[in-house]
From TrEMBL:
Record key words, sorted: Ammonia transport, Membrane, Transmembrane, Transmembrane helix, Transport
Record Pfam families: Ammonium_transp (PF00909)
Name recorded for this polypeptide: Ammonium transporter
Subcellular location, principal: membrane
Region (Disordered): 479-501
GO terms for cellular component: plasma membrane
Places the protein is found: Cell membrane; Membrane
Superkingdom of origin organism: Eukaryota
Transmembrane segments: 20-43, 55-74, 119-138, 145-163, 183-201, 213-233, 245-264, 276-294, 300-321, 342-364, 384-405
Family (UniProt): Belongs to the ammonia transporter channel (TC 1.A.11.2) family.
Organism of provenance: Meristemomyces frigidus
Length: 501
């Protein structure tokens, strides 16, 4: 190989090192949203007995999607035209294929970084979509059924939406706007969560009545990773370290903050108390709602979207989700993915049609003049058409996939009743916060245990010598003393008695 050929491989003329560096960074931020972000968010929000299972569903999906992605799925979503809604499947595993300049042949656009970067960037979006779907199925879906569901839904649902809107398919050609996945990711995952939850059936009655989060601090860690990781989620979709990428990051954070505050205000108004779990939901709906609009709308548009995503999904979750029979008896959406992603995603897409600006559209590389505020009311109808296609496709294909798993593969969609009662230990042989090993070893005698206890008691007494004792002031004691003098200590002795001792 000549020196010129070597130089062309190392620094080809088409390569923009800044764009490549930002795209890989953005992809890594999105990956962190899934692992560990959603893993620990889910593990903290569910009951203790489901923490391992919830994390593992996300962890498995992340790995399985990558393998499917490079063997056939990437080209279905971003490859050469095969159908108006799907590219021709095939692998992307040879060096000569991944080191060349990235192009989207059906969309007739190219990027200033290698195809390998694009493959990885689009993979993390596909992976997080499946992990979001899992949020609706937690606490009762068979893990074996989930293992079959992931590659099937990726192929027949996610890739279709991605090609139709991003890869050059018919919705792309029509002009439907989806900046970073409000439809492709959130509307599709929310719809699949709703439909799949109906197929799988509800959790145990006792779990639905008492499903307290087992670790809110852990959930907050996941929520924080999700929010900050969204900078790569929306900031990476111009496919360049461009001015519009900076705009998308800024507007993403503005909308999210407004939505969180609005949701908190709704909690205070109706429940008289601010809820940290409610604030997390408001954060998520803000992130979802701004995703289709991030670089298209102005800052004031981001604020309006944030207000809407803090109110409408709140009503959907707290009123419709708790009062209507379809949610109380038929669709048990464990973490409310229907409300936080389906409702918020559709809402964000609709508002994009209203508030998209001409400047934002041009900066992103579109030739349209924006939305209704720019005099293009047609864009609102295009957004509605795009939403209806994604919803309808996912209703049909999620149902077909669930039926295929249940009736053809003969894999039960639900865990057994015994597994539902026990949880992680029955499914995985592990528990979230403790492990027990059945091993042989020296077993101390009862006499030895008594001596050790006596030793610990002497050590404990010695460590307390010279320490101040806590004064009990005005405290009712169980022994019937209604009020103790201020000089009486916790051990019942006065200062004088202690001095005499």
């Amino acid at each position: 190989m000549s020196a010129d050929q070597l130089a062309a491989l190392e620094t080809p003329a088409w390569l923009d090192t800044g764009d490549n560096a930002w795209q890989l960074t953005a992809a890594t931020l999105v990956a962190l949203q899934s692992v560990p972000g959603l893993c620990v968010l889910y593990a903290g929000l569910v009951k203790k007995k489901w923490a391992i299972n919830s994390m593992f569903m996300a962890f498995y999906a992340f790995a399985m999607v990558l393998i499917c992605w490079v063997i056939w799925a990437y080209k279905v979503a971003f490859g050469v035209y095969m159908l108006p809604f799907a590219g021709r499947p095939g692998p992307v595993l040879t060096m000569n294929e991944v080191i060349v300049q990235s192009t989207l042949p059906s969309a007739n656009v190219s990027q200033n970084f290698p195809k390998a970067t694009m493959i990885y960037f689009q993979f993390v979006f596909a992976a997080i979509t499946l992990i979001l779907v899992a949020g609706a199925y937690l606490g009762r879906m068979s893990f074996r059924a989930w293992m079959a569901f992931v590659p099937l839904w990726l192929t027949f649902s996610y890739c279709v939406g991605a090609y139709s809107l991003w890869g050059g398919g018919f919705l792309f050609q029509m002009g439907v706007m989806d900046y970073s996945g409000g439809y492709v990711i959130h509307l599709s995952s929310g719809t699949a969560g709703f439909v799949g939850a109906w197929w799988i059936g509800p959790r145990l009655k006792q779990d639905r009545e008492n499903f307290q989060p087992n670790n809110i601090l852990l959930a907050m860690v996941g929520a924080g990773i999700l929010w900050t990781g969204w900078n790569g989620f929306n900031g990476g979709d111009p496919y360049a370290a461009s001015p519009d990428a900076g705009v998308a990051v800024l507007h993403t954070n503005i909308c999210t903050a407004v939505s969180l505050l609005t949701w908190t205000a709704m909690d205070i108004a109706f429940y008289k108390k601010p809820s940290i779990i409610g604030a997390i939901n408001g954060m998520i709906t803000g992130l979802v709602g701004i995703t289709p609009a991030a670089g298209f709308v102005a800052g004031w548009g981001a604020i309006i979207i944030g207000i809407c995503t803090g109110i409408i999904p709140w009503i959907s979750m707290n009123i419709a989700g708790k009062k209507t029979r379809i949610f109380t008896h038929h669709v048990d959406d464990c973490l409310g993915i229907t409300h936080t992603h389906m409702v918020a995603g559709a809402l964000g897409g609709f508002l994009t049609g209203l508030f998209a600006t001409q400047t934002g559209s041009y900066a992103f590389g579109l030739t349209t003049d924006g939305g209704a505020i720019m005099g293009r009311g047609k864009q609102v109808w295009l957004q509605i058409v795009g939403a209806l296609f994604i919803i309808g496709w996912n209703i049909v294909w999620t149902s077909l996939i669930m039926a295929f798993i249940k009736y053809v593969l003969r894999i039960p969609l639900r865990m057994t009743e015994e597994e539902l009662l026990i949880g992680d230990d029955a499914i995985h042989g592990e528990e979230a916060y403790c492990f027990f090993d059945d091993v042989s070893g020296l077993v101390p005698t009862h006499t030895t245990e008594m001596r050790a206890a006596d030793m610990m008691e002497r050590i404990h007494r010695g460590s307390n010598v010279g320490k101040e004792h806590i004064i009990l002031e005005g405290r009712d004691l169980e022994q019937g003393v209604s009020e103790s003098p201020s000089h009486v200590k916790e051990n019942g002795h006065t200062d004088d008695e202690i001095k005499q001792d």
